[in-house]
């Protein structure tokens, strides 16, 4: 059986604080006296009764993790540890999503947080061999003005390589905020060459995906799994090469799907739409990048050829340079299975 670790892959949907290692959270929360609920360590998120989890609990835990990052060194440590983790999981490329306003408490401006993120992404890329690019993101709960400020700061690092900002994202509770109100921020980002990668089609259905397509002109969509209920949108994604960033274990943990078998991986494989599989927030959902591939093999019954196909799609839908993508793709083509 193929060792899934050896498959070159791209990790395209991962949030900064949500990537933190559990031991790091333990250490930092102890150091700063931040109270972390015991249940956080004892239970995977999806073992909490459905009525008690949902978005608000998730966001509360995410914010606790963010608040434990209090210094420049803590911030750098998150990127270093994720680089090593992804190297171990067989990733060649990581596009890490960071909302700079979550870290102003370390004494930096929006631009200062992005400077720090890009600097460390560059260093860790060199040290691990995983090419780490940054996605600057805003939150649906933030004002459009803040979103525009983040976009303006992000464009100073526009590029597709290690330590550069490749895209602009929109995250947090899909039911919050008004999608159209962020259109100007995306316009600013796109005008400097950044790609558009809003979340959507996770907590809301295909009607909202259409709204996102019209207002934010996405190049990739965070999640987008609910597009499978709309044949026309799948057709549009396939034709216009708008890829999805699918996060199977996150979807089950947040109740988007009842079980791993309900995640529409086979429908997506047959749809002609490109997609990657990703960890989203492994600190909370307990499964990292390599785990996603293992789970699709073990629970969804995917064959090695299908897992390789997903890895190929992850490389293709990354925003890396075409020469890098070609190199990793050739490595994938050479795998015997
Ligand atoms: Zn996400």
| Proper CATH architecture | Alpha-Beta Barrel
CATH topology: TIM Barrel
Structural class by SSE content: alpha/beta
Helix content: 40-55%
- Evaluate the radius of gyration: 18 Å
Outline of this structure?
By secondary structure, this protein is of the alpha/beta class. The protein has 15 helices and eight strands. α4 runs parallel beside α5 (110-128) and α6 (144-154) runs parallel beside α7 (183-191).
Describe the structure.
The protein has 337 residues and is an alpha/beta fold. The protein has a single domain (4-327), classed as Alpha-Beta Barrel (TIM Barrel). Helices cover 47% and strands 14% of the residues. The protein has 15 helices and eight strands. The chain has an eight-stranded parallel beta sheet with strand order 1-2-3-4-5-6-7-8. α4 (72-88) runs parallel beside α5.
Keywords:
alpha/beta; 15 helices; eight-stranded parallel beta sheet; binds zinc ion; TIM Barrel; 337 residues; 8 strands
Q: How do the strands and helices of this protein lay out in sequence?
A:
Blueprint: E1 9-15, H1 22-32, H2 39-42, H3 54-67, H4 72-88, E2 91-98, H5 110-128, E3 131-139, H6 144-154, E4 165-171, H7 183-191, E5 195-200, H8 206-216, E6 220-223, H9 231-240, E7 243-246, H10 248-253, H11 265-269, E8 275-277, H12 282-285, H13 289-298, H14 304-317, H15 322-333
Parallel strand pairs: 1-2, 2-3, 3-4, 4-5, 5-6, 6-7, 7-8
Helix pairs in contact: 4-5, 6-7, 14-15
The chain binds zinc ion (ZN).
Residues 13, 15, 171, 199, 222, 280 line the site of zinc ion.
């Amino acid at each position: 059986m193929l060792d899934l670790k050896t498959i070159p892959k791209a990790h395209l949907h991962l949030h900064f604080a949500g990537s933190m290692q559990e031991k790091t959270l333990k250490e930092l929360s102890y150091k700063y006296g931040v109270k972390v609920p015991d249940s956080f360590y004892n239970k995977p998120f999806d073992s909490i009764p459905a009525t008690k989890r949902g978005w608000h609990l998730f966001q509360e835990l995410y914010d606790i993790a963010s608040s434990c990052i209090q210094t420049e060194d803590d911030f750098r440590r998150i990127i270093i540890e994720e680089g090593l983790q992804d190297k171990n999981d067989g990733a060649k490329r990581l596009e890490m999503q960071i909302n700079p306003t979550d870290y102003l408490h370390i004494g930096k401006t929006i631009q200062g947080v992005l400077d720090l993120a890009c600097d460390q992404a560059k260093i860790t890329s060199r040290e691990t061999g995983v090419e780490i690019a940054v996605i600057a993101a805003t939150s649906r709960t933030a004002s459009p003005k803040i979103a525009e400020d983040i976009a303006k700061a992000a464009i100073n690092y526009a590029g597709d390589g290690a330590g550069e900002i490749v895209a602009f994202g929109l995250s947090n509770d899909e039911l919050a905020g008004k999608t159209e109100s962020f259109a100007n921020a995306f316009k600013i980002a796109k005008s400097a060459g950044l790609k558009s990668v809003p979340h959507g089609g996770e907590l809301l259905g295909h009607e909202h995906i259409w709204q996102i397509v019209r207002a934010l002109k996405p190049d990739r969509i965070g999640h987008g799994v609910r597009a499978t209920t709309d044949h026309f949108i799948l057709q549009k994604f396939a034709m216009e090469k708008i890829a999805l960033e699918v996060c199977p274990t996150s979807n089950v943990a947040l109740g988007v799907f009842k079980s791993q078998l309900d995640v529409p991986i086979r429908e997506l494989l047959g749809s002609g739409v490109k997609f990657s599989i990703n960890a989203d927030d492994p600190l909370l959902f307990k499964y990292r990048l390599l785990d996603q591939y293992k789970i699709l093999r073990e629970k969804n019954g995917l064959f090695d050829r299908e897992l390789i196909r997903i890895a190929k799609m992850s490389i293709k839908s990354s925003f890396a340079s075409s020469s890098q993508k070609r190199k990793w793709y050739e490595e994938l083509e050479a795998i015997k299975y």
